[in-house]
Amino acid sequence: MSSSDENEQSRLRRRSFLIGSGAAVATSVFGAVPARATSPGAFPADYDGSDLWLRYEQVADPGLLARYRAALGAIVVENAGRTKVHRHTANLSMAPGSREHLVESTLEAARDELVRGLGGLLGRPVPVQGGFPDRAVIVGTPDSSPLVRMLVPARDLAPLGDDGYLVRALSRGGHRSIVIAGNTDLAALYGTFAFLRRLQAQQPLTDLKLSSVPRINHRYLNYWETERLYAGNNPAGTGGLDGENGAIFDFTATGASAALNLPVILDRYLVAARAMASVGINGITINNVNANSFYVTPAAIEQEAALADALRPYGIKLAVSINYAAPTDARFAPDTLTREELDPYSAKFRDWWTRRARQLQAAIPDFLGFTVKANSEGQPGPQDLGYDHGDGANGMAAAVAPLGMRIFWRTFVYNAEVDADRLKRAYLEFGPIDEERQPDSTIGRFAKNVFLQTKNGPLDYQAREPANPLFGRMEHTNQAIELQITQEYTGQNTMLCYLGPLWEEVLKSDTYATDAHGKLLDKRLVGHVVDGTAQGHPDSAIVGVANFGNADNLTGHHFAQANLYAFGRLAWDWTLDARGIAEDWVRLTWSNRDFVVRTIVAMMMGSREALVSYQTPLGVAHQFRSSDHYGPNPAERLARDDWSPVYYNKADTAGLGYDRSPTGSGFTAQYFPVLAARYADIDTVPENLLMWFHHVPWDRRLRSGRIFWDELVYRYQTGVHYVSWLRRAWDSLERHVDARRFAEVKAKLAAHEADAGTWRDTCVGYWQQFSGRAIPTDGPLSIKIVVGGRAIGGFDAGAASSTVPLAAGTPARITKVIPSDPSVRCEVLSQADGVPGRAVVRVTGMSFFGPILKDYVFEFTR
Ligand code: BDP
Fold first, then answer.
1. Which positions fall inside the Alpha glucuronidase N-terminal domain (predicted)?
2. Average of pLDDT values for 60-81?
């Protein structure tokens, strides 16, 4: 069974949503916002976003509220406290004054979530009861609950596995009930969250029949506590205040926060735990991949054990990132090794890691294992001793296998000696190990408890990349996909960028993988490779580099919460679509009002493609300034070639882009034949990947009919125009969204628009030095204005304003606006008082990814 019911629900909802969306967008773009908001947003005006999507505000629609109240009269969780989860920390406790509370079992977590959720949504407490009351929500497993055993046939539970759940409205013996059941307590908790989600999204309860099974077993976050953290409580957004470092989990806070370090549990840990569980995330590596060995010292292990204790009822297990050379770290003295002893085949090396893993397991019995970044960006690894990644990963794997742990070994390697093209290097290192015949004549050297953890694309979390060629190519090895939730290259904590469409694009992209005889596999999307169905792998994993921090809203930008949510939903079921997930998130997080939902979903859905457009259109990659990976610096040339924007753009007077075709670097050959051929040919490569694979001549004609240079400039402009529209769209929601969050997002969007403009101007200005061509002025939003009977045009749509000289005696009045595209809408916002004077014309239209808006500012002079 798949998660069919839930999919079907979201498909149905989606269809009706799509029909309405065009009109609604037009409404908000063109200013015809409902004149009077019928009621203010349901959330308090000062709400800070700290509940993530776990908001349980009272249902506003009186009819629906009455129906919910009639159907949901009691909560029954039999034996909720019977199966207590393991607790290592005797005196585990919350910080003084906490709102959240610790629970001792997973079923208690489910029960308490229902108490909180139903109480909030229904606006009155719903009692927890025993027995078999009418109108009860019953949660449990056949093991925990006699009622579940009675109400749910065993054959219906069998296909659900360990994590799958079902939710059903039943009528039995004169009793109406809603049953939430699974084979494990955790599955019952997952079902509880799925049920609450439906109520939050104000879906009907009649004929409720949901069931869902995750497609991927290990759904993990990697949390980078020290790097790429854009969610600290410091207003600058990255670091922390009051002795905290901005990370969500406090291990070493000082000063005013010293008393709040683990083992003390803070509210935000439990909000994060509940949020993770609500989307089915079941593991977290708690520290950065450039690992600090502190996290495997005894003192840290005690703190981690407390964290694990608090998260355990929610099904979240812990792992840590390690440094391959940790055994040489003096912090472990006298139990240290010399550098020469880091030989992955040596007993000394393996025993050292077995000892660490044992210590961890003694405190954290369900400890998952280690994430390893080795021989990458200066991190040590097996190659320092002449071994390869297979030797290193297997050495570590052998050390922890007896303890039932796994090694997540990252493939993010790009040793310059391997090949001149950075993109080719990982496969050249890992591919041969996967294909190596073993003494027992099996193929592939990586151990069974090794997962190779591979970024979605071959470079480094860019806003658009082709899929990493390793997907499908590593038939004999377990592979996890790694996605970046924290927005390092996608606007950090300033830009609104919904990443759902990026991940959907990757997970649904066709690898054209073939079997050993060259026949195309039936299931061969990246998602199939990851979930194991493409090549028959029994185990599967997906990893998201998380964006948690200690900011009030936990993610820095209110809209960054959506990325965490979307990652979790896709990790559970990668076949879901990004739009449906966005709609759910908006309903849970902002409002159920149709106008608000449609507007915010539209804002989110175009945001990633807009970012691609104003940052790196048409496949030009990695043009970020090296200092912070936020702003542009296409001219930058660093000591390391493959960190330099110029290495990626290869700008010259002939054109722009990296030739990776067979006559260039030959990277295209790492893909399966269909893709290799498609990417190799400049005529067949998808235009949005053009410069990933080709050096494109400035005057090459593209599918739009425009030459490459013109199209490139338009892409930059269009991306910025979308952000201008975002601002207007958000403004239209002022009376429908709680005040604090409204203002915070509004301020972010203003910075976003300015920074998008900087990207456009910096990049176009730099490319122009090579193209030697003028900025085209006949783009999608180009207009002529008629002043004094004369049509004047040729304005740069990227310029902040245009100076228009008027002949003596000509009145400074715009009498007509003539757009080059008749479908755009023009509006004179203000006329000039005289000369000199200023007039503003607003032009709104549609791009291929969403609405766009430009306010032309005209300065009239004589
Ligand atoms: C890069 C990040 C760096 C990470 C690295 C990685 O800039 O902080 O350490 O990825 O994934 O994108 O190892």
1. 105-194
2. 97
Which residue is it, tokens 């297997």?
394
The pLDDT mean for the chain works out to 94
Which pTM value belongs to this model?
0.95
Strands (E), 519-626: 541-546
Tokens 């007993």 sit at which residue?
A: 347
pLDDT at 26: 34
547 CA distance to ligand 1 centroid (A)? 14
Convert the pLDDT of each residue in 433-455 to its tens digit. 999 999 999 999 999 999 999 99
Mutate to test the pocket of ligand 1, among 223, 225, 227 (most ligand atoms within 8 A of CB): 227
User: Averaged over 199-228, what is the pLDDT?
Assistant: 96
The predicted model gives 802-819 an average pLDDT of 97
62-212 is classed in which CATH architecture? 2-Layer Sandwich (3.30)
Distance CA 801, CA 809 (A): 23
Whether residue 42 has pLDDT greater than 70: no
* DSSP secondary structure letters along 674-718: HHHHHHH-TTTS-GGGHHHH--EETT-B-TTSSBHHHHHHHHHHH
Give the integer Cα–Cα distance in Å for 341 and 380: 13
Q: Are 837 and 809 in contact, with CB atoms under 8 Å apart?
A: no
Q: What would the pLDDT profile of 139-154 be if each residue is shown by its tens digit?
A: 999 999 999 999 999 9
Q: Which atom of ligand 1 is nearest to the CA of 489?
A: 12
**What are the distances in angstroms from CA 768 to CA 132, 652, 802?**
75, 10, 20
More confident residue, 22 or 59: 59
Residue 308, helix vs strand vs coil = helix
Ligand 1 near 373 CB (within 6 A): yes
Token output for 370: 């280690």
pLDDT at 786 over 70: yes
Cis peptide leading into 380, omega within 30 of 0? no
User: 461 CB less than 6 Å from ligand 1?
Assistant: yes
CB 658 within 8 A of CB 690: no
- pLDDT computed for residue 321 by the predictor: 98
CATH of segment(s) 615-771 = 3.90.1330.10
Instruction: Evaluate: CB of 628 within 6 angstroms of ligand 1.
Output: no
Handedness of CA 261, 266, 270, 276 (dihedral sign): negative
Residue 7 pLDDT greater than 60, yes or no: no
pLDDT for 206: 87
Q: How far is the CA of 811 from the centre of ligand 1 (A)?
A: 58
d(CA 615, CA 632): 8
- The residues facing 525 across adjacent strands are 510
How many angstroms separate the alpha carbon of residue 290 from the centre of ligand 1? 8
Of residues 599, 725, 737, 794, the one with CA closest to residue 33: 599
Could you identify the atom of ligand 1 that is nearest to the CA of residue 460?
12
Give, using CA atoms, the residue closest to atom 8 of ligand 1: 227
Which 3 state secondary structure label does DSSP give 34?
A: coil
Residues labelled catalytic: 377, 460, 488
Give per-residue pLDDT as tens, 499-530: 999 999 999 999 999 999 999 999 999 999 99
Q: How many whole angstroms from 639 Cα to the centroid of ligand 1?
A: 18
Domain boundaries along the sequence of the chain: 17-34+779-861, 62-212, 218-227+279-576, 615-771
Closest ligand 1 atom number to CA of residue 376: 13
* Alpha-carbon span 802 to 201, nearest angstrom: 47
**Torsion angle (degrees, nearest 10) of CA 581, 584, 587, 589:** -60
Ligand 1 centroid–CA 379 distance in Å is 11
Q: What is the DSSP letter of 510?
A: B
Greater confidence, 239 or 446? 446
pLDDT at res. 446 = 98
Question: In this predicted structure, what is the pLDDT of residue 174?
Answer: 87
CATH number of the 218-227+279-576 domain: 3.20.20.80
Q: Are 479 and 452 in contact (CB under 8 A)?
A: yes
